[in-house]
Amino acid sequence: MTTPPFAPAPFPLARPRRLRSSPWVRRLTAETLLTPADLVWPLIVHDGADDRQAVASMPGVFRLSPKEAAKAAVEARDLGIPMVALFPNVDGAIKDAVGTGATDPDGLIPDCIKAIKDAAPEIGVMTDVALDCYTDHGHDGIVEDGRVINDASLDRLAEQAFIHAHAGADVVAPSDMMDGRVQAIREALEANGFQDTLILSYAAKYASAFYGPYRDAVGSAKMLAGDKKTYQMDYANSDEALREVAMDIAEGADAVMVKPGLPYLDIVRRVSETFRVPTFAYQVSGEYAMMKASIAQGWLDEDRAVLETLSAFKRAGCAGVLTYFAADAARLLTR
Ligand code: PBG
Fold first, then answer.
1. 38: CA distance to ligand 1 center in Å?
2. Residue 169 pLDDT exceeds 60
3. What's the CA gap between 263 and 95, in Å, rounded?
4. Structural domains in the chain, sorted by start
5. Residues designated as active site
């Protein structure tokens, strides 16, 4: 974004409405263009018996079996969506203190990656690197004496990223907010021959009320003891986000993410202008649930509200947006 070098002419020489007077001129002069290529579709996957399970707090979102996730990936590819992102809901019985399930090479996420790569090899697959979906305490790292321990968590996270890359993940996305995890992951990938695996780091991830429905979707809500404020960022802060992003880029991140989405567009703008690396934002579960609830009441027009919010991310400087509306939006954009 640049500031105009001079003030616009005064009225009536300037009549801004001229540029809005008909659809063709609005299209011709549009400053941003949203396309399906800007969208990443988060898929919640599960290891239960059913193919699909509705998520109560996220109407229209289903927990998918690996087979159903592969179908969704085919659908996404056919809609022109470049990447899907996987988030696991695993059986509570496999959860433990160190998140052993996170590094199971035959676990749910490796299964899903393989199923998707078989069905739609052209689509990018991103995985979430964090332990919360696999731990019995619901934290993203290892807990000792009630504290989330940074350095001991790094080995687990690096191993998890390696397991994902080994199963075929194209992009590993650490969402845990431990210090130094990008470096630990980059070293593990380099050491094991995965130099082409991308790291999309959740660099500026805030401790947010808007993750509520997601924790329900992946089954970590009941587990979580306390909050994540010792590792996720405080929403009062903005300069701190720039320091986080700078560190992650220096440690080997190819692209960065700001999360949540709409309430944090000021951060997206600062990050994208400052660093000029591909900057993503995540329109998270609570944002989706909030919109769906008013759409269900008839208070918001779904199609218009979806395209407006997703365009706002582009306008703020995003290379792309993770959104549970991805398939719906891609359908709207291509019809
Ligand atoms: C956790 C993770 C979270 C989300 C993505 N990865 C939640 C959390 O930090 O508790 C949230 C996604 C959403 O709300 O849609 N590692």
1. 20
2. yes
3. 32
4. 35-334 (3.20.20.70)
5. 205, 259
